[in-house]
Structures are given as C-alpha cells and as structure tokens.
Design goal:
alpha/beta, 11 helices
Amino acid sequence: MSNNDIIVSLDIGTSKVRAIIGEVVNGTINIIGVGSADSEGIRKGAIVDIDQTVQSIRSAIDHAERMVGIQISDVYVGITGNHIALQESHGVVAVSNEDREIGEEDIERVIQAARVIALPPEREIIGVVPNQYLVDGQEGIHEPRGMIGVRLEVESTIITGAKTGIHNLLRVVEKSGLKVAGLILMSLASGQLALSKDEKSIGTVLVDIGAGSTTIAVFDQGNLVATSTLPIGGDFITNDISIGLRTQMDIAEKIKLKYGCATIQDSAPDQVFKVNRIGSQVDKEFSQVDLANIIEPRVQEIFHLIRAEANRLGYSDPAGGYVLTGGTVSLPGTLVIAQEELAAPVRIAVPDYIGVRDPAYTSGVGIIQFVCKFLRNRPVTAPKKQTANKPASVKTPQTEASPGWFDKVKNFLKEFI
C-alpha cells in the first residue's frame, strides 16, 4: 500500500446504515469520518425496498462526506444473511517458474483451481478463503511466496451466496451513485477486528447481534469454519416493549435506548418515565423495573437460541467461549444474561478507535482492517488531493480489472488467514 490511502466501508443493517472512512498512514488505520442514517427498506437483514434503501445509503454517505469534506466514490460493502454458505474446496497446480520458485501467478492459479466447484444456478461465489497451502505435500503453509517446490496445493473455504441477495445489494449501492470496490463477508470482517489470533486458533464463537438478525460465526484453527444467521435481534426486544407498554415502535425504541436494562436485578425502581400510549390521551408512568420485566425474558430467549444454534454447528462448548458484538449488546446487563445462558466465557468486543467505540461499529471498522490487510502488498492509487474549491474524490483501491464484476473481485478474500 502507499503511505496514505483512504478506505470507505459501508455496513447496511436493519436499523442503521453506517459509512466509515478510514485513512491508512504508514500501515496505521485512523478513523476520520463516520456517517450514520436510519435504515429504511431493510427487514431482518434483507433488502425489501430498493428506493428506500438507496435513500438511507445516500444519507449516511452524505453525513460522512460532510464530516471529512471529501467526496466518496468507491466503497467496500459488507454482506451477510442466511443465504451465505461455506463449502470446502481443494486446488492443485504445477509451479510454472523454471527455477521452481512460487510466485504470485502460481497462487492466483491455485486459487482459481479451487474455485472450480459445482454450484446450483441460483448461487454465486463471493470469495475464496485459503485455510492452508501445501508445497510438495508439506502442510501448514500460510505464505508460500518465494518457496521452492514443484506442486502447489490449497485447502480453502469457498464463500457462496444467493444471486438474488448479492445482485440486489450491488443494485442499491450502485443506484446510490457509488462503485462497489469489493464485497466483504461481515463475519470475516468482524473476526478480523474482534478476535485475537489465539481465539481463532482454539475455537471461538463470534456473535453479532443486530436489530433484525443475529449472525453466528465459528472460528477454529485460525479459520472461519461455520456461519449461520438467526432471524432475531434487537427489534424483537423493541416490539415486546411496544406491545407491553402499548406504545408506538419508535417510542419503544427510544425508551429501550434511554432506560432499557436487560436484568431485573440491576434495574432501578426509582427510575421512572412516562409513555404516550396508543388510544389514550393520558401518558402513563412506568419504572425501569417494569421495562426490565419485558426485556429480560426476550434477551434470555435470544441467547438460548444462540447456544442452540452453536450446538447445532458442533460448537456447544467452544474453548475460546463467545465474543459478542453488534448494536444490541450495548444494552446494559446483556453480558450478565449471556454468561448465564451460554454457560461459557463471554466478552463484548468494541473497536478501539476514537469516534467508533461502540459494538455497533465492529463490522464497519473490521471491513477497513480487512481491506488494509488484503492490500498490504498490493500497488494502489492514492486518493486525489483536495483543492481549495473542489472536494477530493476518494478513489478507494480497486482489485484487478476484468470484464465481469465477480471476476474483478474474485480473489478479494484470498489474503485472509
């Protein structure tokens, strides 16, 4: 990478659309701009209204642009959902150089060999994640460049998704006037930021609890080995509050954020608030204890389902425990409930950057870290300098050009280890 690059991530969630601008200076990431907007047109993590989603994206991008004073043109977009699937694959090629030194071209060819798998017509390959390389049968190699050998192999995980979900995501971003520099699997991005090398090695379950869905990603032996999405999240808590207090959803959301507590034990009976109820002209007073009696059972249910899903994936008792992230885990008392329900070590991951120290930003910042790692050894074009009268146009680094979009980003994930 050059000494000064701009990377922009776009996290399109059920409740919020977040655009984060990261500046990479001599290998160090600085978060210089954040834009956030209420998400419209998204239900349970899926796009249900193109035009509304475009407006939300545009609003978040405009917010980030005003903060930094630059114009964003290219973004790296996070993708998630229950249509994402992982598939193991194996590729083998002969080393092409006469001196038998493994070069970039050999790695590209072996990755392409791993991509040759049978897929249903409705699915598309998003990326390839190498788990390990083998040189003449020697296992456990993560960086084969420069090594001497005759045969190069790769054991990899192919990330696939439904064409409908992928193309709709590309559609809304492009209709927002932006170019998609790459699609990043959210689980990989969050894992890049939230998990240590040791946690990835011994086996850890990363849980991202958003508003409309919860994504569970299992890392073991340094690799992403399983992922799953549950159609539950913070919106279910808000919905329970709306029904329990007989008020509108937007009021219930504000009450949850201001007075919400996940445990009845930690709630304060003297903390009271008034609620404008549906069908009544008179506000009714409730205490934080009343609110916690609504919230606690739903939070317990969410973690009960998370543990059941981890058990289904074969990781009921991960050695590294559970790491929580996502906007919903900011609710006070969530960690206590999680420790009780999951019966394992639990911690909450928070980005350690000024302006984004909130679990809701883990995925967005993780995308920037992931891209920075991928582009570490790649030549890129630095962003244009800003002039006095005209804002700079941020040209985030592109992957190698080719006729099709998926060909253009075909090897985006291959640097992840």
